[in-house]
Amino acid sequence: MSEYLILRHRAIPGLERLPVYLEHQGFAAFKKAVTELQPAQIIQMVKDSGLRGRGGAGFPTGLKWSFLPNDLWPHYVVANADESEPGTFKDREIMESNPFQFLEGLMIASYAVQARVAYIYIRGEYWHIAKWLDQKIAELEQAGLLGENLFGTDYSLRLYTHLGAGAYICGEETALLESLEGKIGQPRLRPPFPATAGLYNRPTVVNNVETLANVPLIVLHGPAWYHNYGTDKSPGTKVFSLSGCVNRPGNYELPFGVTFRELIFEHGGGVPEGRTLKAVMTAGASSVLIPMDESVLDTPMDYESLNKFGGSLGSASVIVLDDSVNMAWLTYKTVNFFKHESCGKCTPCREGTYWMNRLAERIARGQGEAREVELLYQVARQMQGKCLCALGEFSTLAVVSSIDRFRADYEAVVTKEPVYG
Ligand code: L3W
Asked: Residue 415's pLDDT is what?
């Protein structure tokens, strides 16, 4: 696709600089919102556009904004810039190269729910981006686009960046809010959802960076225009982070509904050295393994079509696996990550990821018995549906799907003789 909605900096050199962004209709949408539109009108526009959350769940953005009660104040907006899913590197490019479009989206969201303070919660390893965004925020304040009484109205807005400290769990929205409040980053029980009881127990919108970057264009061009891209139920484009066994890894902005074949072969240049495509993960480590063959390659990638594989598009971090990869090894890599990142608050995840890691490691190292594969499977199955948040649940997906779908890979590595007698 030559037309970019989100990675517009690839077509417009210098877009990360305010004068260039302003030359390309920058902040026209925010000005229009604050001076011409009622908050409810903006929420309706975003609802009509069909924009869905890009962090992974695909929840309708306008609907989320509409949940904030009007009898409890203040309202907050928090941008989730804690991008930590293995294989996900799209928000980084947006913030580094098209920062003003993201900030403008955050500002429009804030106006739409009448928040006067918004936070950008950004992963600690992106400290240089936090500093960069602080500079951009200062430029906006100097230019009179951010601060008190914007465009002569009584609407005022302040933006703040806040660095995380290296914990994957803080990308989960309620753990993020705990961390932002200065507490240990552990998830809260939901409901209540942040929309009613979020930051400091006040109504809060939490949106992913990419989600917010869509908003200025929707306000500027209207919801009908947005439906020119993507599918009926998943309109717009998606930035796919493509990695793994592929010739041209990187971020690819493509309309929803693009097929695996187009993404991996046309854009990504196929798998290296003539090897065979074996499986794909679509939501980073939080994915089921989707076995790949000719019949699967033409599946459209959107929020609906992957359900038939027991999977979801997630954050569209597409990890390509070829026939050089043993799935027992891959499973060990994923559960090792989740064991390290489990926050320890709920028992099924704390204990389950620990035991899955021990078993998966033995198996991957060729020290496991066949019955330990069954035990690994049972541990994962027993965790499902019992964890406090998505992290525990997702830690089981590669385990269960790899044993169900790639059992031969386990048979190739387990010892033939019992190890423990
Ligand atoms: C008010 C209700 N709000 C749901 C809100 C909720 C949240 C959103 C989605 O994300 C995803 C997973 C992986 N009243 C509500 C309501 N909401 N019902 O809607 O909620 P939910 O629970 O469906 O998902 P979630 O737990 O927020 C989990 C994806 O994350 N994942 C991780 C991605 C990591 C990154 C990254 O590193 N950048 O994105 C893995 O793919 O797909 O679906 O806001 O409050 N009744």
From this structure: 79
For the chain, residues with pLDDT lower than 50 are: 1, 421
* Strands of the sheet with 204-208, listed across from one edge: 158-163, 117-122, 76-81, 204-208
**What pLDDT was estimated at residue 417?**
61
Residue 287 is classified by DSSP as S
* Element spanning 357, H or E: helix 347-364
Biggest CA–CA distance in the chain, Å, is 80
User: Ligand 1: residues whose CB is within 6 Å?
Assistant: 53, 55-57, 59, 64, 67, 83-85, 88, 91, 171, 173, 193-195, 206, 208, 283-284, 286, 312, 314-315, 390
Which atom of ligand 1 lies closest to the CA of 209? 38
Rounded Cα–Cα distance for residues 105 and 208 (Å): 11
- CA-to-CA distance for 380 and 352, rounded, in angstroms? 7
Cβ 170 vs Cβ 176: under 8 Å: yes
What interface predicted TM-score (ipTM) does this complex get? Answer: 0.95
Q: What atom in ligand 1 is closest to the CA of residue 85?
A: 37
* Cα–Cα distance list, 360 to 221, 286, 290, 377 (Å): 51, 16, 20, 10
- What per-residue confidence (pLDDT) applies to 291? 97
Return the residue matching tokens 């939080």.
286
Cα 73 from chain centroid (whole Å): 28
Closest CA to 249 of 325, 320, 334: 320
